[in-house]
């Protein structure tokens, strides 16, 4: 993405919707793990459910790394969604020097459809700064 001022990211366990906000328009990019796209899960790739936590961490790390690359030059970010993963992503962002000047808000929301996610961002970004 080119220089972007405002981005919202709806984060769930294995997928994230990155939404670039410009007045009256939202462009959404869905980011998911390559392992999920290939249909791999911890049972087939490791053969032991005890590795589920390691598998989940690998999925999340893969998604977070993709998102971080896409957030370069961003000035404002809202992380939202129903799971704790938005906080994990926030922690990863604030420890990265590249995001020191970026304003980041974390908001807990319920499960949302794509339209609800877009409406949420429109409301948040149109009336105030984060």
Describe the structure.
The protein is an alpha/beta fold and 130 residues long. It has one domain (6-127): eRF1 domain 2 (Nucleotidyltransferase, domain 5). Helix content is 40%, strand content 26%. The protein contains five helices and five strands. The chain has a five-stranded mixed beta sheet with strand order 3-2-1-4-5, sandwiched between helices. The radius of gyration is 15 Å and the shape is globular.
SSE diagram, text form:
Blueprint: E1 6-11, E2 15-22, E3 25-32, H1 34-37, H2 42-46, H3 52-70, E4 76-81, H4 85-94, E5 103-108, H5 114-127
Parallel strand pairs: 1-4, 4-5
Antiparallel strand pairs: 1-2, 2-3
In CATH, the homologous superfamily goes by the name: eRF1 domain 2
Rg estimate, integer Å: 15 Å
Q: Could you name the CATH topology? A: Nucleotidyltransferase, domain 5
Structural class: alpha/beta
Q: What is the CATH first-level class name?
A: Alpha Beta
Helix content: 40-55%
Low-confidence sequence ranges:
none
Instruction: Give the SSE string.
Output: EEEHHHEHEH
Q: What is the total domain count?
A: 1
Q: What characterizes the major β-sheet?
A: 5 strands, mixed
Proportion of residues in extended strands? 25-35%
Identify the CATH architecture.
2-Layer Sandwich
**Measured distance between first and last alpha carbons:** 21 Å
DSSP helical segment count: 5
């Amino acid at each position: 993405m080119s220089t972007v001022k405002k981005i919202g990211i709806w984060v769930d366990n294995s997928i994230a919707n990155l939404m670039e906000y410009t007045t009256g328009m939202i462009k959404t990019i869905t980011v998911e793990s390559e392992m999920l796209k290939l249909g791999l899960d911890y049972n087939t790739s490791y053969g032991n459910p005890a590795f589920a936590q390691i598998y989940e961490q690998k999925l999340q790390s893969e998604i977070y790394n993709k998102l971080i690359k896409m957030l370069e030059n961003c000035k404002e970010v809202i992380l939202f969604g129903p799971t704790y993963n938005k906080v994990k992503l926030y922690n990863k962002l604030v420890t990265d020097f590249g995001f020191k000047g970026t304003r980041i808000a974390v908001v807990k929301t319920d499960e949302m459809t794509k339209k609800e996610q877009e409406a949420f961002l429109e409301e948040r970004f149109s009336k105030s700064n984060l």
